[in-house]
């Protein structure tokens, strides 16, 4: 499809003047590669198909006008000889008017046909790419697939994130080939079975003898602290708060903004804290990744709901959730947790460096996902994020500096400071998808300023002792709202 853009601010589609509108992927904005949102291909097609449906009604009306014009022309025939010149002119004028209506109608029909043909082409390309993805093969060249997979020919640079995502998705095919199954047969197996189901694999691992310590255990509230302060509620400011919260193991932060009559909340969830064993009590250790990817963050979501209640949140209060790395998995899982969405009005989710492609949020929840092309972590679930009106994915393409080996962590692409810089660029962007997404966040949390800041210390229930049929005492499940630090009961 055409990648040209019709001149005009905010016009997301291109095409030849006088021809049918054509969709085009959002152009890169500096180091930001943008997918989804109001400028995304999916929403463009939604608008164009809605327009085509509206034009169908206009076409039917014009066809009726044509019939009436022809009937009027024929009705004038008996009167032509009463005044031959004027009668002939009248008949000719009505006929020419009917022909003009015919030309407009046929042009509109052509436009609607081309729009629908363009949509079929898009769906065919997406279906083909999805099939190749299931077979563990790269996608076909297309200007409209909007997914960013490396094409077969004229390949763009391969990113670390894409390599891992495709590798995980194509693991069944790779395993089949490793076992000596011919490549065509292995590809057919992949096409039938689909991409790797990371959720099922995680559950299977936890069911394996010797790995029971990875199974989720109840998460309770061990203590809390409340204070007033000024907060930066921009996307960059909120991501940096996730880094601050992550300095203390097991803590989350709740920000209460607005007035008593119009209160809104921000849930800030840190990334993985790997300094403890997964059988420990910190819900954000590596065992927390298992709960997030395999079990929908059920226990962590329940603890966050209780923390919001203790902080003073009321049923139906608007909420935004922010998470970095593992925290982004938990934040996004809130959007599909029926218990959470029944209690609170989750409006927005912001993630950075998080594998959330397999999570489908409840309708009406907007989300903004930051990834870096050389961060492998967002591809760890083997699925790309969906391209929808309410879901925007931004891939950062800025060059990275290699850190010292002792600070390498999960790689330079996964560093929170890099994502915060990307979030600042998102806030400054003029791209319509990003402007709409950041406006949706601001509509919930406001522009920043005074807020009530509550820190909650969460603890996972301890593992039962070997040979014991009883579990160790669980962390306290509920406590009254507090204004100072409380120890676990």
Q: Please, what is the average pLDDT?
A: 79
The description of the largest β-sheet is: 9 strands, mixed
Structural class, from secondary structure content? alpha/beta
Specify the overall morphology: elongated
> Topology as H/E string?
EEEHHHHHHEHEEHHEHHEEEHHE
Given the structure, what is the number of helices? Answer: 13
Could you tell me the number of beta strands? 11
How large is the radius of gyration? 29 Å
Q: Approximately how much beta-strand content do the residues carry?
A: 15-25%
Residue runs with pLDDT of under 50 for 5 or more positions: 1-14, 140-157, 175-179, 469-489
- Helix fraction bin: 40-55%
How would you describe this structure to a colleague?
- The protein has 489 residues and is α/β, with parallel strands linked by helices.
- It has 13 helices and eleven strands.
- The strands form two sheets. The protein has a nine-stranded mixed beta sheet with strand order 3-10-9-8-7-6-5-11-4. Strands 1-2 form a two-stranded antiparallel sheet.
- The longest helix has 51 residues, at 84-134.
- The protein starts with 12 loop residues before the first strand and ends in a 29-residue tail after the last strand.
């Amino acid at each position: 499809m055409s990648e040209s853009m019709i001149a005009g601010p905010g016009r997301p589609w291109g095409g030849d003047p006088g021809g049918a509108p054509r969709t085009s992927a959002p152009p890169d904005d500096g180091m930001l590669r943008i997918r989804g949102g109001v400028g995304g291909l999916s929403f463009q097609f939604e608008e164009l198909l809605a327009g085509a449906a509206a034009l169908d009604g206009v076409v039917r009306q014009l066809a009726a006008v044509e019939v009436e014009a022809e009937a009027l022309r024929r009705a004038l025939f008996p009167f032509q000889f009463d005044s031959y010149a004027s009668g002939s002119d009248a008949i000719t004028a009505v006929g020419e008017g009917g022909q003009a209506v015919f030309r407009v109608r046929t042009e509109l029909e052509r436009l609607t046909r081309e729009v629908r043909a363009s949509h079929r082409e898009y769906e065919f390309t997406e279906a083909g790419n999805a099939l190749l993805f299931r077979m563990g093969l790269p996608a076909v060249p297309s200007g409209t697939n909007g997914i960013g997979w490396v094409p077969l020919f004229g390949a763009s640079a391969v990113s670390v994130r894409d390599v891992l995502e495709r590798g995980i998705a194509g693991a069944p095919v790779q395993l089949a080939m490793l076992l000596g199954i011919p490549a065509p047969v292995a590809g057919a197996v992949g096409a039938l079975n689909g991409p790797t189901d990371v959720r099922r694999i995680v559950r299977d691992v936890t069911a394996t003898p010797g790995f029971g310590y990875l199974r989720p255990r109840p998460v309770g509230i061990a203590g809390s602290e409340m204070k007033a302060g000024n907060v930066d509620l921009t996307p960059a400011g909120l991501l940096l708060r996730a880094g601050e919260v992550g300095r203390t193991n097991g803590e989350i932060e709740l920000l209460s903004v607005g007035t008593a009559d119009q209160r809104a909340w921000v849930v800030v969830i840190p990334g993985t804290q790997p300094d403890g064993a997964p059988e420990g009590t910190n819900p954000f250790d590596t065992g927390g990744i298992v709960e997030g990817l395999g079990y929908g963050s059920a226990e962590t979501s329940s603890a966050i709901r209780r923390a919001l209640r203790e902080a003073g949140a009321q049923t139906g209060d608007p909420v935004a959730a922010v998470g970095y790395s593992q925290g982004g998995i938990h934040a996004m899982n809130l959007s599909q947790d029926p218990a959470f969405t029944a209690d609170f009005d989750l409006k927005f989710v912001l993630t950075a460096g998080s594998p959330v492609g397999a999570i489908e949020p409840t309708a009406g929840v907007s989300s903004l996902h930051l990834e870096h092309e050389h961060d492998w972590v967002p591809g760890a679930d083997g699925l790309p994020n969906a391209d929808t009106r309410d879901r925007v994915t931004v891939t950062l393409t800025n060059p990275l500096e290699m850190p010292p080996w002792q600070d390498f962590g999960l790689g330079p692409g996964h560093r929170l400071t890099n994502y915060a810089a990307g979030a600042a660029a998102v806030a400054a962007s003029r791209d319509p998808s990003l402007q709409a997404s950041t406006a949706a966040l601001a509509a919930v949390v406001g522009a920043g300023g005074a807020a009530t800041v509550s820190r909650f210390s969460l603890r996972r229930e301890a593992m039962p002792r070997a040979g014991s049929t009883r579990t160790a005492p669980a962390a306290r499940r509920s406590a009254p709202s507090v204004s100072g630090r409380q120890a676990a009961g």
